Amino acid sequence: MASNGQSGAVSPQTLHGPPYPSKYAGLGLLPTKNVDIPVSAVLVSLFICSAAFNMTIFRRNRRRGHKFVLSSLFFGFSMARITANVLRIVWACYPRNVRLAIAAQIFANAGVIIVFLVNLILVQRVLRAYHPRLGWSTPARVVFRFFFASVPACLIMLIVVVVYSFYTLDQSAIDKTHDVQVVALTYFAVLAFLPIPTVGLCFIVPRRQRIEKFGAGSMRYKLFLIIFAACLLTLGAAFRAGVSYYRVPSAQPRWFHQKACFYSFNYVIELIVVFTYALSRFDKRFHIPDGSSAPGHYVNGVPVSDGRVLDEELPWSASGQTMTESAWNSQLQTKMKQEAAV
Each residue of 94-105: pLDDT tens digit? Predict the structure, then answer.
């Protein structure tokens, strides 16, 4: 989480007490009314559209018994981005308010981890479809759970050191907080890139059984969506990490600290990813039977004690009635033939 530069701000030594403005240039620099307010206002309107679109999809699916929580995560992400841009607008109006700067920076850098997590969840489903035994194995579960748990832990650590860096003038402490920020941002870049080698793993590891197709649409298009999103997210995360490695005084910012880079490598990339997933109806393409926990559940649904499968676990059930496993397999084969024809 690179701290935004306070170019032109009062020197920390001239202030009476903490928090102190940063001595170093950061991505986005100090916001100004003539540039940041109109740009942030446009972004707020776009993220409002994203929030409304994803929540509408989530609620309509829920009314039909189609459970897909990831749409609600994108809604939460969009709301976080709305807050981040509103804070930047307010910060532009009060550029010397360091507390506003801290809040704006935290929200600007924290929200994207939700998209990282969504992409990891999607690629986990693809891995389990291509290699059910490997994807559902205990080692694979542990690895993915580690990544899921490490993200909020790393974010909390990041927020703590960023806030602390504004409340000290000790150069040694500032250098140490910067080192933590560099490590965390580098880890987020690796996390954004992780779906790409995971997709590669699906093809490298020899497959001993048929692909357990899930959701609507072809597996090829699912892979394209994941790789496309991962490439964009990696670009943004790697750029932010690279900027954090290069510290210069706030009065001497480089081209990569400018506002165009800040908005392009943060919000523009995120909007492309979120709208690409939403408009491609990833809620249908990546839907899996609720309660899936073992090989075979993607294809056959999750059996209950009387030999049936639950209604909400049949992504292509048009009748809304509970079907037997044989009827479900017959409908699945028909659907797969239709997809192959497309």
Answer: 988 889 989 988
Ramachandran angles phi, psi of 293, nearest 5°: -150, 5
Give the CA distances from residue 276 to residues 85, 201, 269, 298, in Å, rounded to whole numbers and listed in that order.
21, 24, 11, 24
Q: CA-CA distance, 264 to 164, in Å (whole number)?
A: 28
Contacts with 190 (C-beta within 8 Å, 6 or more apart), sequence order: none
Q: What is the widest separation between alpha-carbon atoms in the chain?
A: 77
282-311 pLDDT per residue, tens = 989 898 887 777 777 777 666 654 444 443
Q: Which two tokens stand for residue 304?
A: 């209950």
pLDDT in tens, 162-189: 899 899 888 899 999 999 999 999 999 9
Q: Which residues contact 70 (CB under 8 A, 6 or more apart)?
A: 118, 121, 122, 282, 283, 286
Is residue 174 a contact partner of residue 161, using CB atoms and an 8 Å limit?
no
What is the residue type of 23? K
Yes or no: say if 212 and 298 are a contact pair by the CB < 8 Å rule: yes
Q: What is the mean pLDDT of residues 126-139?
A: 89
β-sheet bridge partners, residue 324: 308
